[in-house]
Amino acid sequence: MSECQDQMHEEEGGEESVAIVTRRSRQGSCCHSTRAKKVTTTHKIRALRELVASMEKEVQHLESKWTSQVRDDRVLAMARRCAMEKYTAHQSENMQAQLQDLLFHQQFRFASLQTALLRAPLHSKASEVFHALHFDTQLSQHEDERERRLVAHNLRSLSTLPRLVNQITQRILQTTTTGRDQVTSRTPVSQIDIAGCRDCTLISGIFVSEIPCTSLEVVYAAVLAYFDSVATAMKSHFDIETRHQKLNSIESPVHYQRSSFKGPNVSWTENNIVCSELTPSHGMVHIDAVTDDPLYSVSNTTSSRYGICCLTLSPRKDQMTGKTLSVTLRWVVAYCYNRLADDPEIENEVETIRPILNGDLITASMCRFLQEVQQGRRQILHRQNWTLDEQ
After folding, report:
1. Within the chain, which residues score under 70 in pLDDT?
2. Domain check: are 29 and 168 in the same one?
3. CATH, residue 299
4. b/e for 311-349, b at 16 or more Cβ within 10 A?
5. Cα–Cα distance between 127 and 136 in angstroms, integer?
6. pTM recorded for the entire structure
7. Backbone phi and psi for residue 207, each to the nearest 5 degrees, phi listed first
8. 69 and 129 belong to one structural domain
């Protein structure tokens, strides 16, 4: 009981110290911003001394409180260290959020410049991601030829995309990590890129995360559960109704479907080819858009954008024992808008789908699935590939 009380005092003290230091820092910045422009160095030093004295008084009060309530020197030292770590983490998170927001808005400005120049001179991974994932498959009017092209698309996807996705994400890890093990040292890692083209705008998201599960099959089941719940997620998170219609025969090994999305202020339609597989070495799901289908055409008036994505899973094994330690998830997604980057509606819509781009939505879904499996509230359906039921 005494240890629980000590820990409670430690946590309360840590939170209080972070609040005091943060509040004082904000008070200091507010005082600084409201002063007249012409302030002498003496006045600045005097104000800083007053701020430091006030903070020291608060710290002394907190030290006295901790000393009287926390008798154990070891617990007291841990409380002090915890308070400092919380303050440092709080400052780091605030700075990171500000920098990400600044980068996001700057990318839109740069994308607008790219469109104006008609040649996209600024480097952006959005174009690279889009052309890696989009096969631009053209379907025929004849059923046999359509099926042959769908099968060829599926074979190309399964044979090339695991390697391409690994290459794309590897470059992201190299720029954001310095450790020996790039996958585990600083994951999850996410990056959103924007590119302005001659007549469209490309938005891409790259996400890499380490899933703390030793079963590739269980993690793959969690991925399929996420795609199974696309309609539910679109409705609950974005208030968008989703409908799916299968466009090829049920006997076909390839899944070709039409997806229709309708929200309060937006609606669009896509034709998608779904490719997926699970092997002992990896799992993958690839959804590509078909923009040229004479039987099921999609006009620009009914499709303001289309999305493509690819997800791969690969087990990370112990080099000595060969046992699986965890599963690496790589998520790459791209959206093509038939509007230019200076259209303000694009920025608003990208803010809406940010949880899809940065991996938050799929991470939340998979964590919920794995937790339910661990608690025995979810049964795993072992499937080698995936198709969406018509809804």
Report:
1. 1-39, 116-124, 175-186, 300-303, 381-391
2. no
3. 3.30.530
4. bbbbbeeeeeeeeeebbbbbbbbbbbbeebbbeeebbeb
5. 14
6. 0.67
7. -140, 130
8. no
